TrEMBL record:
Its cofactor is Mg(2+). GO terms for molecular function: lyase activity; magnesium ion binding. This is CoA ester lyase. It comes from Novosphingobium olei. Mg(2+) binds at residues 134, 162. GO terms for biological process: oxaloacetate metabolic process. Belongs to the HpcH/HpaI aldolase family. Keywords: Lyase, Magnesium, Metal-binding. It comes from the Bacteria.
Length: 293
């Protein structure tokens, strides 16, 4: 599975918005059963989401967009019903909100395994992407993902809105527009632990979808810091995120040169390329950029 750069949330109870999802250009569409759906509409959202996934699952090999589902948090008691409803549609993965550490994610993964067997889905095909920061307890367990191997774990992502509410924070950014300490800590932990675990690091959304320049700067900063993609809450954000994370021609040329250099020297650990030293981390980064193993 290639790394999706843009991850767009779409309400699971809106047939109209789901119908437009494939046209947005988002690399990953997250059909949302959680925050975007009112409590009274949860059952309808499951029905709509399942039907939509069923209608699209046969196109998996042809499409460039992957379909994920954000289920409800474990403490709501709704998550098993969510999984039972949507797994017949074979989503690419499940986003876990308010993930309370690796043990909770493993519990959800075990349920996914059972549902894969029941629905004829290849074992391990359904990946998991936890939102690791939405409560203070969740935020202090981020480092545990680095030492808790989970085959289904596709990546880590984080969110600021729920954590801010839990903290009673009156601000999330300072006067210069930078994340304040708690949020900067969570973002850095998400980035570092994702790389330590060898999974995708996906940056949080830019809440003001009308602020195109702010989003562009946030997306460029995320790419520069080492994130692989970014969440989006509005279709207008998708092309900006895709453009920010797209590799430049110079980056692609350099990646090809690094791969070719090591291919020509298979036993080398370190090489010289254009006057600078390159080693195995450079090779891994180049392969990731090019989407090759």
């Amino acid at each position: 599975m290639r790394i999706p750069r843009s991850w767009l949330f779409v309400p699971g109870d809106s047939e109209k918005k789901l119908a437009k999802g494939p046209e947005t250009g988002a690399h990953a569409l997250i059909v949302d059963l959680e925050d975007a759906v009112a409590p009274s509409a949860k059952a309808e959202a499951r029905r709509v989401t399942r039907n939509w996934l069923e209608a699209h699952k046969r196109q998996v090999t042809m499409r460039k967009q992957v379909h994920w589902v954000r289920i409800n948090a474990v403490d709501t008691g709704l998550w098993r019903d969510d999984l039972g409803a949507v797994m017949p549609g074979a989503p690419a993965g499940i986003m876990v909100p308010k993930a309370d550490g690796p043990e909770q994610v493993r519990m959800i993964a075990a349920e996914i395994y059972e549902l894969e067997q029941r629905n004829g889905i290849p074992n391990g095909q359904t990946k998991v992407l936890p939102l690791v920061s939405e409560t203070p307890r969740a935020a202090i367990t981020i480092a545990d993902y680095a030492t808790s191997p989970m085959p289904r774990l596709a990546g880590l992502t984080w969110g600021a809105e729920d954590l801010g509410a839990e903290l009673g924070a009156s601000r999330k950014r300072d006067a210069a527009g930078l994340w304040t300490d708690a949020f900067r800590y969570v973002r850095a932990q998400t980035l570092l632990v994702a790389h330590a675990a060898g999974v995708w690091a996906i940056d949080t959304l830019h809440a003001d979808f009308r602020d195109e320049e702010g989003l562009r700067q946030a997306a460029l900063a995320a790419k520069g810091d080492g994130f692989a993609g970014m969440l989006a809450i509005h279709p207008a954000q998708v092309p900006i995120i895709n453009a920010a994370f797209a590799p430049s021609e110079a980056e692609l040329d350099e990646a090809h040169a690094i791969v070719e250099a090591f291919a020509g020297n298979p036993g080398a650990g370190t090489l010289q390329l254009n006057g600078r030293m390159i080693d195995q981390p450079h090779l891994r980064q180049a392969k990731a950029l090019l989407g090759i193993d």
